[in-house]
């Protein structure tokens, strides 16, 4: 019999993997946990959000280091091309805007995309919620996810233009209750001197982020690729790891493995391990993103310009137009220079006066929309090559038109559009919110990969985590929800190990 070197191995160090590590540590501190991450560590403590790095050169270097290997581990597969800063594109050669997913991207670094994200953490509403999880369980898990990510709606409460922005949005969207126009909940901490810290996975990891406080029970290995999860008769026995600094391959024995390797690479690793349930990689959905930008009216800008210029608030806040079943999209309304999507480059800006409008749409969950893997062809990491088959349905296209109309409505009440272009759709994959590829289900009916505890059907000790687990059609930014599902999974795993 093999001696277990660890009680659990976590593959991937983004917010979902970090939530497993922290929750396992809090629920069962005696467990020995190894976390492996293919990308490099960017910071001390590891997992810091790159926006917290004060030196722009250091920030740019950290983003670059997250964009995949600079030399391919497989001579037949070229190195990936860069996506948005901190990300790399799956297939930089695919450019058709409405077929496939040309903007599908990933990050490879300690902290994953959680070192680069915008930190918007809305709760799912109405039919975005997972109906087979009872409301109390889901809400408590979302609350715990908010604690782990340090989510607040108050960080920009005193931003000079934010009150005006929301008052104007209320004229265009008549909403009440949970769907009312409100500040976007954000994973940030505001300090007494007014400065902001953006939550990376160092925040989620808490004491585990610091070598001095993590103790001997937790280990993080960067630049370590998990090539395969090892199984014996439906039970996890460990992982096969490749040290990317020297190519050495080792096996680590553990009775539980959590694959939190993003919505594309989690199913890739299961496929590489011979775990290939019918739903693997299927039901993939992205959130089509419609964007535009407006300039606030001069009187609004003048009323708050003193404060903004004095640096009272670098950001004018982020406002939220929540999802409803009638309008199945949600709006993120934010100061443009706080947005990861550049919209207008040739216009000097009074801080906070140019507002980006980003509407994320829910799409139908369609079995045929999928990421497929190839046994015979490998990617630049030496893992099964991925191809995405993805098409929008007629219903999706109608929702996108509805969202364009909503952005126009919002823009008209907020000010003047920056250019003549009507609100437009970004190429598929731009949202970076990919879901469904290892989806959770209530029953093992061939339409899901894991059960409500995130354990892969019929495979004891194998857990999946991240946005790919989310089974519903959602428009809200997914990280809060996937961290909540990770909390439920980690608690279940901790219980099973007592
Ligand atoms: P990731 O954070 O992607 O981490 C997965 C990690 O697994 C990666 O580091 C990867 O290298 C590693 N990995 C993969 N395969 C292997 C392997 N075989 N072996 C070892 N390691 C492996 N979401 C929101 O909810 N709100 C936002 O406002 C928001 N804004 C965003 C803005 C930007 C610019 C970006 C880039 C993302 C944004 N997102 C946002 C998306 C958010 O960052 C992701 O939802 C979140 O990081 C997903 O967490 P994860 O842990 O599942 O995966």
Automatic annotation (TrEMBL):
Residues 64-75 have a biased composition (Polar residues). InterPro entries: FAD/NAD-bd_sf, GMC_OxRdtase_N, GMC_OxRtase_C, P2Ox-like. Residues 367-486 form the Glucose-methanol-choline oxidoreductase C-terminal domain. Pfam families: GMC_oxred_C (PF05199), GMC_oxred_N (PF00732). Its cofactor is FAD. It comes from the Bacteria. Its EC number is 1.1.3.10. One of its GO terms (molecular function) is pyranose oxidase activity. It is an enzyme of class 1 (oxidoreductase). Residues 220-288 form the Glucose-methanol-choline oxidoreductase N-terminal domain. This is Pyranose oxidase. Keywords: FAD, Flavoprotein, Oxidoreductase.
